Amino acid sequence: MNAAVRATVRMGIYTGAKVYFVHEGYQGLVDGGDNIKLATWESVSMMLHLGGTVIGSARCMDFKEKWGRLKAACNLVKLSITNLCVIGGDGSLTGANQFRTEWSELLADLTKGGKISAEEAKRSSHLNIVGMVGSIDNDFCGTDMTIGTDSALHRIIEVVDAITTTAQSHQRTFILEVMGRHCGYLALVTALACGADWVFIPEMPPEENWEEHLCKRLIAQRGRGSRLNVIILAEGAQDRNQKPITCDQVKNLVSKKLGFDTRSTILGHVQRGGTPSAFDRILGSRMGVEAVMALLEATPETPACVVSLSGNMAVRLPLMECVQVTKDVTVAMTEGRFEDAVKLRGKSFQNNWDTYKMLAHVTPPEMKVSNSSINIAIINVGAPCAGMNAAVRAAVRVGIIQGHQMLAVHDGFDGLANGQIEPIIWAQVGGWTGKGGSNLGTNRHLPGKNIEQISLNITKFNIHSLIIIGGFEAYLGGLELVTAREMYEELCIPMVVIPATVSNNVPGSDFSIGADTALNTITMTCDRIKQSAAGTKRRVFIIETMGGYCGYLATMAGLSSGADDAYIYEEPFHIRDLELNVEHLIEKMKTSVKRGLILRNSNANENYTTQFLYNLYSEEGKGTFDCRMNVLGHMQQGGTPSPFDRNFGTKMGSKSVLWLTDKLKECYRHGRIFANMPDSACVLGMKKRSLVFQPLASLKDDTDFEHRIPKTEWWLRLRPILKILAKYDTVEMDTSEVAAMEHVIKKTGLVKGGKM
Question: Keywords, A to Z (predicted)?
Fold first, then answer.
């Protein structure tokens, strides 16, 4: 929430508006006085890393009464405030909409009662409202992610990781209750991210006789060599007859019926607190900027809207339509239309549920090596990154469910050439989602000279299709294999490349597995570094991030840690720019915010190195500030994967195998597989709002091979936000993709009488 408050204040001031804080939520609006204060640029400094909200929030009964809203309106009119930005859940947003709807009526009453003059009423004749959804449950329909959800998942996954280590040692069953009274999002994503054995969510209660199924499943898991069982339960979990299912109930069932050593943990308010994740800070900052734009463009005719994120696109949605669909979910659940409830939650919820169901609710084929005639090989290429193992695990398990035999290739393309290939089974990948690095082993070598050896091994091991998980090398290697198809018929098999690299520089995808984890590592490090400067004052830090020529990490980390600038290769900078930055920092030292943070992407410029910048800033800042330099290095590639990367890896892994299964059917002719069409070798990537397969060959034109980056990069549009929030005056905003108002009702299909 604080990132959103900070961005709204700074963007508002940047556009020349006066921005006010309303402390203590609607209560502050009703009470007025000191609760409504003018905000300044500096008043929102050093708050990005704080959880909760610095302006306070409170449940307010007075605002639900008309007299309360009259007082609130009077306070706003006196300060000539006509734009209101509300961050909260559906209750707060519905309240805001009601306030707006009866605004003219409130003004008439105030004028009649002599509280305000006719002149004042005329000046504030209209109230504009924009909402941002802050709720850890992610229970607001129409939005992919609400502010706070990702941070809550970070807290939950930290706990799950800690619990699973002890459960593994003692062969225990753990039941974990997470928040979500009416929405199972947290429970569902947690279950996906930790590979839980069972999940209870309110939208989709278990079938009748679930007790029996659950016990069978736990026994089966132990039988396959698993030493622990994890069950995730949303606090609003219920059965088909809407009777609550509680933690204790499940615990008693497992311990009495199976005699397993069982423990239960209720996470409670731990999930609300802590430092916000990088994703949440960027989401909050983007939403804050978008909210100000929406308010400035609003007319009396535009409906109150919420700003939200869909894929990586900022969107505006009519507030009341979202509230309506959110209510429809509750209605669908009470009427027992559970399929509808899941559909209404939106595409991303539906995808999570389908993936979970496929991985967890199917009894896998027996342990024996599969008798399927299809072999799919999985290979990791390039530098290791967090989340690779999650993708491998999902691919292996979905492949086995589809009836294929899965093969693991160790140590990249070298392993493929040297025959380091062996079958990999269900139990081998247990617990892989939470492990960083690459368990299969990986390196940066391309097929190159070994193409002939590779094609011989493809025949020898009877490989029918290939999943390549990795960074830019995976993409290049894939292209080399496709090009070599003319010479080697053995390479005419379906292939899919899954982007996994901290640099996020693979053409064909807006995000790659591993980038979110690296971003969180950089953000946390920057927080600590800034904190050290808060004590010493007048200090500027220059930090070098990874990413090769791709400035994604530097830019996004700049947004999430509140940097003064981020130097990247894609946006050339010259001596004049460096001079401006130094002047900007000298000015900044005159304010109450006496510290600076500059990020530089490792290959931003071959002459203006990190050392050069450090020397320049040290010399120019003499007597005003001193400098320190940090090169973050390989800590950015390690660590346990973030919830986003686990979930993303799992979805990518399973989707790739399902696609290959269909492709193999298409390419099966005269008793053998033959695939030489461009669309039989694809990159699976996230584009704007959905996962899409794009032929490797078709991405060549959009690739800068020399610098190993795509020619078009969506996140460059966010660069101006970084500058504006760091107080640069003249910033060109690219508003060509300004978010238009979209409708939610049409998207989900209104539910009438139980029919979609």
Answer: Allosteric enzyme, ATP-binding, Cytoplasm, Glycolysis, Kinase, Magnesium, Metal-binding, Nucleotide-binding, Transferase
* Amino acid at residue number 216: K
Cα gap 565→549, rounded to integer Å: 17
Largest CA distance in the chain: 91
Residue 527 has pLDDT above 80, yes or no: yes
Tell me: the pLDDT tens digits for 67-93? 999 999 999 999 999 999 999 988 899
Question: With bands split at pLDDT 50, 70 and 90, how would you rate the model's confidence at 755?
Answer: very low
Q: Residue 392, SS3?
A: helix
Strand runs labelled E in 179-289: 198-200, 229-234, 262-266
Evaluate whether 699 touches 515 at the Cβ level (below 8 Å). Answer: no
Check if the beta carbon of residue 270 is closer than 8 Å to that of residue 258: no
Q: How many CB atoms lie within 10 A of CB 728?
A: 16
634 vs 238: CA distance, rounded Å: 45
Alpha-carbon 525 to chain mean position: 19
Q: Which helix (H) or strand (E) holds 317?
A: strand 313-318
Residues flagged as binding site for substrate: 135-137, 172, 179-181, 235, 263, 269-272
- Closest by Cα among 39, 129, 139 to 87: 129
Could you give the CA distance from residue 166 to residue 170 in angstroms, rounded to a whole number? 6
pLDDT given at position 19: 97
| Separation of alpha carbons 61 and 68, rounded Å | 8
Going by C-alpha positions, the residue among 434, 472, 400 that lies closest to residue 683 is 472
CA distance 337 to 348: 19
- Copy the structure tokens of residue 28: 């502050």
Q: Where are the alpha helices (DSSP H) in 363-441?
A: 388-401, 412-418
Binding site feature residues: 59-60, 89-92, 135-137, 172, 179-181, 235, 263, 269-272, 444, 501-505, 539, 546-548, 628, 634-637, 708
Sequential DSSP letters for 195-259: T-SEEEBTTBPPPTTHHHHHHHHHHHHHHTT---EEEEEETT-B-TT--B--HHHHHHHHHHHH-
| Residue (of 624, 628, 457) closest to 540 by Cα position | 628
User: Catalytic one among 31, 34, 109, 137?
Assistant: 137
Quickly count: other Cβ atoms within 10 Å of residue 225's Cβ. 11
**Which residues are known binding-site members for ATP?**
59-60, 89-92
**What type of residue is 20?**
Y
Neighbours of 422 (CB within 10 A): 11
Length of the chain: 756
Distance CA 672, CA 253 (A): 50
Pairing of strands 173-178, 262-266: parallel
β-bridge partners, 499: 470
Cα–Cα distance between 100 and 34 in angstroms, integer?
23
Q: Which residues on neighbouring strands pair with residue 598, listed in sequence order? A: 542, 565
- Ranking 9-23, 267-281, 695-709, 724-738 by mean pLDDT, the lowest is 724-738
**Residues 188, 178: contact at Cβ < 8 Å?**
no
166: nearest Cα among 93, 257, 265, 69: 265
**DSSP three-state, residue 340:** helix
Q: What share of the chain is helix, strand, coil (3-state, %, to 5)?
A: 45, 15, 35
Residue type, 58: A
What sign has the CA pseudo-torsion 161, 165, 171, 177? negative
Q: Is 150 a catalytic residue?
A: no
Residue 754, pLDDT above cutoff 50: no
Three-state SS across 137-176? CCCCCCCCCCECHHHHHHHHHHHHHHHHHHHHHHCCEEEE
- In angstroms, the Cα distances linking 364 to 152, 199, 207, 647 are 32, 18, 20, 21
- What is the helix (H) or strand (E) element at residue 422, kind and residue range? strand 421-423
Cα–Cα dist 150/136, whole Å? 8
Binding residues for beta-D-fructose 2,6-bisphosphate, as ranges, are: 444, 501-505, 539, 546-548, 628, 634-637, 708
* 712: its two tokens: 């078009």
